[in-house]
C-alpha cells in the first residue's frame, strides 16, 4: 500500500507539476557538478585548457557550458561560461564560434571592474585572431590585456597572464620580421613566468623556448635555434602542438644541413603529432618541410603527395581567415528577456540578410558560369595549339601590352620599334631562314632558360641582334620580351593540361620550371596571357578534368 502511494505521488509530480518548475528542479540538481566543472575549466589558460578539453566529450562539455550560462546570476559568471564555450570551440577547431563567444565575454566585462578576467579574455582573443591571420586586431587585444594584467594583485596570476600576452607580442613582431623585438618580448615572457612557479607553467615556458627556436631559425643561427628547441623538448612530457612545432623546427634545421637521415626522424615525429592535431598551422608547417625533404632526396612522387597535403592545409587556413575577416565579430550571447520590438527588428534584419545572401550567391554563381565558359574556350584553344605543333601562335593571338605590369625582364635593348625592313638590313633569304629557325626554337624549350635574352638567342641562332629583333617584331607581332614570355606560359599550360602532377606543384616551382626568376613575375605574365591566375587556372582545370578526363567540353550554352 505504501509502495502504491509512493508511485501515485511520483505520477502526480510528473503530470501536474508545471514544466518550468521541472526544468528548475533539473537545473538545481545539476548545478553543483556543473559548477565544479566550470571552476576547474576556468583555472586553465588557453593552450593548456585546449589540450585538456580536446580529449573529452566536447559536445557534452558545450551543453554544460550552456547550462552554466543559463544558471549564471552575476555578470562575471556569464563571462566565465562564455569563455569556457569559446575555449571548447577552439579545441574543436571552430575558430569563428570561439571568437564570437570570446567577443561576447569581452562585451560583458564592460559592465564590471574585473581586471584579471579582462586580461584573460583579451589574451584569448589575441591568440584566436593571430591564429586566423588578423595580426593587427590580435595586437590590439594583446596591448589591452597587458595593460589590464598590470593591475592584477595576485602575483602568480599576473605573471602567468603577462607571460602569455608577451608571447603574443613576440608572434606579432615575428610576423613583421622584427626578430630582435620578438626576442625581447619572449624574454619578458620568461621573466613573467619565473616570477610565478615555473613548474606550474612548464608548457607555457616550453612554448616561449619554441618561439625562440623559431626566431633564431629565421635568423639562420641554427646552433642557437637548436639549443632552444631542445630546452622546449625537455620540458614537454606529452604530445602536443608545441612539441610538434619543436620536432618540425629540428627537422627544418637538419634539412638546411642536408642531414637527410636525422631530418626524416624528426619530421616523422612532427607528422605523427600533426596528423592527430586540429592545428592547421602545425599541419601546414610540417607538410611544407616534408615536401622539401622529399624534393631534396629526389622522391618526386612523395614530394607531390605532401605538396597536395600542404595546399589543403593552406587553403583551409586561408578559408578560416577569410571567414572570420569577412563576417567580423558576431553576437552569440544567449537569449534573455527582451522586448518584442527588438525581436521584430532582429527578425526583419535576419530576413534582409538572408535575401542579400541569396542575391550574392546568385551573382557569384552567374559570374562563375561565365568564367568557366571563358576557361573552356582558353583550354580548347590550347588543345588546338598542342595538336598543331608546327604553328607558332602564342596562347593569345592579339597584341598584349605588358608594359603596365611586372613581368619577366628579357633583355631587348637593341630595340625593335622600326618594323619597316630596309632592303640593306638583310636579304629576303636571310629573313626567311631566321623565321624558320624561330619556328624550330618554338618547338623546343630553350626559351625556358633563365639566361634568355635577345643577345643570348641571337648567339644560339647564329645571327645578330638587329636581324633577330626585326624578324620577331615583324612576324611575331611582339617584342622579344613578350614573345619569350608567351612561349613560356604556353609551355607551362601544356604541362598543366597533360600532366596532372604539375597541378600539385607549388606556383614557385612552376615559375622556376619555365624560366621565371620569381613567383610574382610568373603570376603577372600568366594572368596577362590567360586572364586567370595560376591557382585559379589549376582549380578550374582540375574541376573540368574531373568531369571529363580527356578535357572534352560540351558546347557553351
TrEMBL record:
Transmembrane intervals: 344-364
SMART domains, per database record: HTH_ARAC, TPR
The organism's place on the tree of life at top rank: Bacteria
TPR repeats: 206-239
Residues of the HTH araC/xylS-type domain: 436-540
Record has Lipid metabolism as a keyword: no
Keywords: DNA-binding, Membrane, TPR repeat, Transcription, Transcription regulation, Transmembrane, Transmembrane helix
GO molecular function: DNA-binding transcription factor activity; sequence-specific DNA binding
PANTHER family in the cross-refs: ARAC-FAMILY TRANSCRIPTIONAL REGULATOR, HTH-TYPE TRANSCRIPTIONAL REGULATOR EXSA
Name this protein carries in UniProt: Helix-turn-helix domain-containing protein
Organism: Chryseobacterium oleae
